[in-house]
Structure formats: structure tokens, C-alpha cells
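Mods, move this if it's the wrong board.
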Amino acid sequence: MPQLIPPIPDALTLAVVTGLGALLGKIWANRVSAKEDSKIQSELASLRADLERSLHVHRVQFEKEFQVYLELSEKMVAVREALFTLNKALKPEFKDEEKKEQYDASLKQSLENAFVEFRATVLNNKPFYAEDVFIAADRVIDLALDEITTQDSDLSGQMPSLKRIIEIKSQISESTEALVQAIRVRINLLKVVD
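Not the wrong board. C-alpha cells:
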């Protein structure tokens, strides 16, 4: 029987099969690459979203903590000033007992208000700042309360000794400075990330 199609040389057959194999391989590789690229893009988008969320939370935390430190510092200064002005050695002399009592009452009220505000700020914001800052703030509260109690219980009207005045002033100064240092350390640890 005669052949209608002449035989194709073996080299040409090999070239066609190889070309078709390469073409199919390229198509298959492109599909796999597109799937992998899509998967990587999806993971990258997820990581970007997580990073954005994390940065937002960090920024909000920094702003809240910084605001609390500003408030703590203001209230602490008010307590310190009120404590120092309440000291009998620093009070003016009054000839009129009624004026003296009014003056003392206003100083005590000023201290009480400053103390209540400071303590409320410390306790209400405890979850928003570092433990070492709370410990330092709590120490200021303890000393202030101790001094308030001492002032209230001193019914004799006698002025405390100079040694006691210096001791109280030193303790209050040291505790407020420890609080300031704790706040400074914490603020230096916080970084604003853009």
C-alpha cells in the first residue's frame, strides 16, 4: 500500500515533540507561578494589615500613657506644693486666731483636694502605665498621707523640730523625684512608630 504521507525524519519528530513539551511546561510553570504569586500577595496583604493594626494600637497606647504621665506630674506637683505650704515652719504669723484658722483651713483644703486628685489619677490610670511608675506614685501617696495625718494629729500647736521638717521635705522630694525618674525612663522606652 502506498503511503500518503511521506515519513518524517526522526530529528524533525524529536524537535516537534520537544517544542510541544517546552510549550506545555512553560504554560504549567506560569500557572504554578501565578498560584504562588497570588498566595504570597495574600499573605503579604495580611501581614500589612496586622502591622497597621499593631502600629495603631502602639500609637494609641503611647498617647494614652504619655497623657497619664502629664496628668500624674501635674497632680504630684500640686501635692508637693500643698505639703510644703502646710508645714508650720513656713506659715506666716497671725495675731488674729480666726484668720490663722481660716488660713490653716484653706491650706488643708488645698492639700486635701490635691491629694484626692493625685490619688484618683494614680489609681484610675494604673492599667495604662508601667508598674515601676505606679510604685513610685504610690510612695508619694503614702508620704503625703503620712504627712497629712501628722499635721492633723498635732493638736499641741507646736512646730516640729527643724530636723523633722528637713526629714519630711527630703522624703517628699526624694519620692517625687523617683516618680519623675520612673516617668522619664518609661517615656524613653516608648517609641512612636510611623
